[in-house]
């Protein structure tokens, strides 16, 4: 996927561990608008590429902003981004959406924990400006650790429900109470730590249909050892390729000159999704929804494999 050059125009220390970084084009031309809930690939100073949700105003074309939490066990990505200064240059992808606003929803419930507030912030900003019915539930351990809380209190205080200091054991009770009186046609969106999102999905499932629950997950699923894999065939545009146990579909296709875009190589960004025309995918990604996986019509070819001896694929 082609990356574009940008310059860091502003940096804000949102919490002791979270910084928001504003980006502009070096020539001052507009970066463009994006759909709320979108994310970008960011190639940092150490050439490590990671995915970050945009948290700026989607309708504002001048700049993009994303927030990054410095992780204690960072492999270099978040630590390097926290060392950026205004004027530094980065490369980013065009925005793309794995999480988006359901157009048929009558009401929207946004649920965030920790750094998971970033995609919810762009969605809340859009919904507020466009007069969509929504509420935002924000869980954080302390006010000091709740990024963008002052902004939310200022812009949409009547839509904000800040759950500060709620213990993990009490989260389910709080969520259940919040979901009990939801109107028909409500959709739920969530982002945060894996365990938290699992809890939101489980509780929301008691109150809304499964296809009305949406989440964003940038954590890679643990992959089996290659010794547990079997070889199989993939057909693309009339050509057949052997996929050995120790290589992914996308590796083999790219080695043979096929034009398949990739980014994360971990099944979390959605760049490499392809159509499945024949065969039964074995999904190992954290990007497709449950409904998409059950349909068997698409797959993330950077990590997923097959339950059948052969797959017939096409570009998405």
Automatic annotation (TrEMBL):
The keyword Ribosomal protein does not apply. Its EC number is 1.-.-.-. The keyword Iron applies. It comes from the Bacteria. One of its GO terms (molecular function) is oxidoreductase activity. Signal peptide: none annotated. Residues 1-102 form the FAD-binding FR-type domain. Its cofactor is FAD; FMN. Pfam families: DmmA-like_N, Fer2. Keywords: 2Fe-2S, Flavoprotein, FMN, Iron, Iron-sulfur, Metal-binding, Oxidoreductase. Residues 228-316 form the 2Fe-2S ferredoxin-type domain. PANTHER family: CARNITINE MONOOXYGENASE REDUCTASE SUBUNIT, NADH OXIDOREDUCTASE HCR. This is PDR/VanB family oxidoreductase. It comes from Rhodococcus artemisiae.
């Amino acid at each position: 996927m082609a990356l574009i050059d940008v310059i860091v125009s502003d940096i804000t220390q949102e919490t002791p561990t979270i910084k928001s970084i504003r980006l502009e084009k070096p020539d001052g031309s507009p970066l463009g608008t994006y759909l709320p809930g979108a994310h970008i690939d960011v190639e940092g100073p150490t050439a490590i590429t990671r995915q970050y949700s945009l948290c700026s105003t989607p309708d504002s074309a001048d700049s993009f902003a994303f927030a990054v939490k410095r992780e204690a066990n960072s492999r270099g990505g978040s630590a390097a981004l926290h060392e950026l200064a205004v004027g530094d240059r980065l490369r980013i992808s065009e925005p793309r959406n794995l999480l988006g606003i359901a157009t048929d929803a009558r009401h929207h419930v946004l649920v965030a924990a920790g750094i998971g507030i970033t995609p919810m912030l762009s969605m809340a900003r859009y919904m507020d400006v466009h007069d969509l019915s929504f509420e935002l539930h924000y869980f954080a351990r302390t006010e000091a650790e709740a990024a963008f809380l002052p902004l939310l209190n200022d812009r949409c205080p009547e839509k904000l429900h800040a759950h500060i200091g709620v213990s993990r054991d009490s989260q389910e009770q709080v969520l259940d109470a919040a979901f009990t009186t939801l109107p028909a046609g409500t959709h739920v969106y969530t982002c945060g730590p894996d365990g938290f999102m699992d809890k939101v999905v489980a509780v929301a499932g008691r109150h809304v249909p499964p296809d009305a629950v949406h989440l964003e997950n940038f954590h890679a699923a643990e992959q089996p050892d290659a010794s547990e894999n079997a070889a199989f065939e993939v057909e693309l545009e009339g050509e057949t390729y052997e996929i050995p146990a120790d290589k992914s579909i996308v590796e083999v296709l790219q080695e043979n000159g096929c034009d398949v875009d990739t980014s994360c190589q971990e099944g979390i960004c959605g760049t490499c999704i392809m159509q499945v025309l024949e065969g039964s995918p074995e999904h190992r990604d954290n990007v497709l929804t449950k409904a998409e996986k059950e349909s068997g019509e698409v797959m993330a070819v950077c990590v997923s494999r097959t339950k059948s001896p052969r797959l017939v694929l096409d570009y998405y």
